[in-house]
From TrEMBL:
UniProt protein name: Right-handed parallel beta-helix repeat-containing protein
Domain called Right handed beta helix: residue spans: 138-221
Length: 663
């Protein structure tokens, strides 16, 4: 039972663990028998102990588990996502050490997305709960809970939507229940809870070294009223039991934004339940209370610039700034051209990417900067760069903001730098906040197997494991069926990967191939439907994986692109570009004959591939080339073209292009 180590749970799903634990929501149990309540994962049990006033037994102060983690899990309608607890042994804050809860979501919780007792060391990071449960719990409901813990960090988490079912008390976003030491809440968002955003109590004993920083609270205290038989909860964003001054460092409240919601029958919510207690024991600094939720709740998240700049401005090195045909236009007048958005309110736990629809005629890189509620300035560490095609054509660019750790809290303003070059013609057609999941990577594993990963969590019962949610289309599908035969979730350290298998057939060696993702739902209910191009190149040798698979090359060997597998004088890469067979020496792109015709012309004959496009070019110096006619599409295995004979030496070359490319 004691001194367990190295227990790790990852990529699991838990559902409907939400039965009431006692009559009328009361916690029932008798010493020394322990109890639990509905939880996805619960660490507990009976520990041999001595009842007061006897002294501690050795088992009461022993390590139970070291190095424990829960990652990439989903908890649907559970009273608690991850819990630890012992009611009857006296508190010991080091029963669990090196404890980690990461990258998971919890809905329906009434006793916390996590409810931790007796944890020493570790963290909860990127945990989301946004809708509470319906189970009555008389002693109070919460989105997250710690008691008898020390040296623990809660970072980049979301605690929202907690409610007070029946006669339940509290309904708070996060609860520090007491007897905690060196516990930090940082870079979190806490919003739309029935009770206060944060509750600090001394129920389990004095706290020491608490730090609440860089956190934003909004629109809490949505139901502070009393139903029959239920006490009124304090109508305040931050609640603290207070008490006699603690002789040591109790806590700090620093760089916090509080945006109060409207009153709901008990008057306007207060910032603090008892201001004097917070001032005395938390020494608040940089607490922003100058705006309410009503001041920021209607801010725009998406812009299409149909008729105006829609609040965008503060442009730099941008000539001719205007709106033309539903887009912001202009020219870059320097290497630091940019334009800033109107004020916005983006919960970074809900919105993980943005879509920029734009065009540029010069420059391969663009950038998105952002300000946050806790850091209202632009800086290089709050920026994501993305590649662009500078051909003047409008394209949609997905910018994954999870690339940088500073994407936390609430974004209040964007800045778009569409080019880093001077003299680019710019056009910004739309800037939108992305809500649904998208495919962030797609790998061709074999001629009849694909693996894909989403940028954020999708619901395991939301269609992601349904073969009909995936449609293969395009002229490069080869002999594969429209839908895969099976979909399997694979567990990895970086989250789940979904494997699509076809029982027969093979993907094509050429042509465009797309995988249609349709009606896949995430835990918030957002639905993903979009096309993803199947263009894997695992070894970055410019040979598509599908082509290498079909012709038996190694998708993990970049050197095989330079090889001449059939000995016809053309490398495998040259064979790919000419759409010839790299395993057949008679399938090659070459001029096979040049003859003079009776009318004084030179006729060229070359081997061709049906469907490929060809164009002749001439030069007198092998430097400057002149196009001779338009592109010709081959319908047979050999083509010919006549050119006027030249008086001086003339060099001729033939360009080949795939049907979907210009050259």
């Amino acid at each position: 039972m004691f001194n367990n180590r190295d227990v790790h749970i990852t990529n699991c799903y838990f559902e409907n663990m939400n039965e009431m634990w006692g009559e009328n929501g009361d916690i029932l149990g008798l010493p020394i028998d322990e109890l639990s309540w509905g939880a996805g994962i619960w660490l507990g049990g009976t520990i041999p102990s001595l009842l007061p006033p006897e002294g501690y037994s050795p088992s009461e102060q022993s390590l139970l588990l070291d190095d424990f983690s829960v990652t990439h899990c989903g908890f649907q309608d559970v009273d608690t996502g991850l819990g630890t607890g012992f009611y009857y042994p006296r508190p010991y804050r080091s029963r669990f050490t090196n404890f980690r809860f990461e990258d998971s979501w919890v809905t329906g919780c009434v006793n916390g997305s996590f409810a931790l007792f007796s944890v020493d060391g570790g963290h909860a990071k990127r945990i989301d709960t946004w809708v509470g449960g319906t189970v009555e719990y008389n002693s109070g409901t919460t989105g997250g809970f710690v008691q008898d813990c020390k040296n623990f960090l809660i970072e980049d988490c979301q605690f929202g939507g907690n409610i007070r079912p029946g006669k339940s008390h509290d309904g708070v976003g996060f609860d520090i229940e007491g007897h905690c030491e060196n516990v930090t809440v940082r870079d979190c968002v806490v919003h739309d809870n029935d009770g206060g955003g944060l509750l600090v109590l001394n129920t389990g004993g004095w706290n020491e070294g608490l730090l609440i920083e860089r956190t934003t609270f909004w629109n809490n205290a949505r139901n502070p009223k009393a139903d029959p038989g239920m006490a009124v909860t304090d109508n305040a964003e931050l609640r603290y039991a207070g008490g006699a001054p603690n002789p040591s460092f109790y806590g700090r409240l620093s760089n916090v934004g509080i945006y109060r919601g409207d009153g709901v029958g008990k008057g306007t919510p207060r910032y603090y339940d008892v201001t004097g207690n917070w001032v005395r024991d938390f020494s608040p600094t940089d607490v922003r209370i100058d705006q309410t939720w009503a001041d920021v709740s209607d801010r725009v998240l998406d812009w299409s610039f149909d008729t105006s700049l829609e609040g965008w401005g503060d442009a730099n090195q941008w000539d001719g700034l205007s709106v033309d045909q539903g887009a912001i236009v202009g020219q870059s007048a320097g290497a630091d051209s940019y334009i800033s958005s109107a004020d916005t309110w983006v919960n970074t736990r809900d919105i993980r990417w943005v879509k920029v629809r734009m065009s540029s005629t010069k420059g391969k890189v663009a950038q998105v900067f952002y300000q946050t509620e806790t850091e209202p300035w632009f800086s290089g560490d709050k920026m994501v760069a993305f590649e662009v095609v500078d051909d003047g054509q409008l394209r949609d660019y997905i910018v994954d903001l999870d690339q940088v750790e500073t994407y936390r809290g609430v974004v209040t303003k964007w800045r778009l730098d569409p080019t880093l070059e001077v003299g680019s013609e710019l056009r910004i057609d739309a800037f939108e906040a992305g809500r649904e999941a998208y495919v962030s990577s797609l790998e061709i594993v074999s001629p009849n197997q694909l693996k894909l990963r989403f940028n954020q969590a999708v619901h395991l019962t939301g269609g992601v494991l349904d073969a009909s949610s995936y449609v293969l289309k395009g002229d490069g599908v080869g002999t594969l069926a429209e839908h895969p035969n099976s979909v399997t979730m694979l567990s990895t350290d970086n989250g789940p990967v979904y494997q699509l298998d076809w029982e027969g057939g093979s993907i094509g060696a050429s042509g465009e191939t797309f995988l249609r993702i349709q009606m896949i739902r995430d835990p918030h209910g957002n639905v993903s439907s979009r096309d993803v191009e199947v263009v894997g190149d695992a070894d970055s040798d410019a040979l598509p994986d599908a082509w290498e698979f079909v012709y038996g090359l190694d998708v993990h060997d970049p050197l095989d692109a330079k090889m001449d597998s059939d000995g016809d004088g053309l490398s495998n890469l040259e064979e790919f570009w000419s759409s010839t067979n790299p395993l057949d020496a008679f399938s090659r792109f070459a001029i096979v004959e040049s003859t003079f015709t009776p009318d004084g012309k030179v006729q060229l004959n070359w081997l061709s591939e049906p469907g490929m496009r060809y164009r002749l070019e001439t030069s007198v110096n092998l430097v400057d080339w002149v196009q001779e006619g338009e592109w010709l599409t081959a319908s047979q295995s050999e083509m010919s073209r006549a050119l006027d004979a030249a008086e001086a030496p003339l060099f001729v070359r033939i360009r080949a292009a795939k049907p979907s490319r210009t050259e």
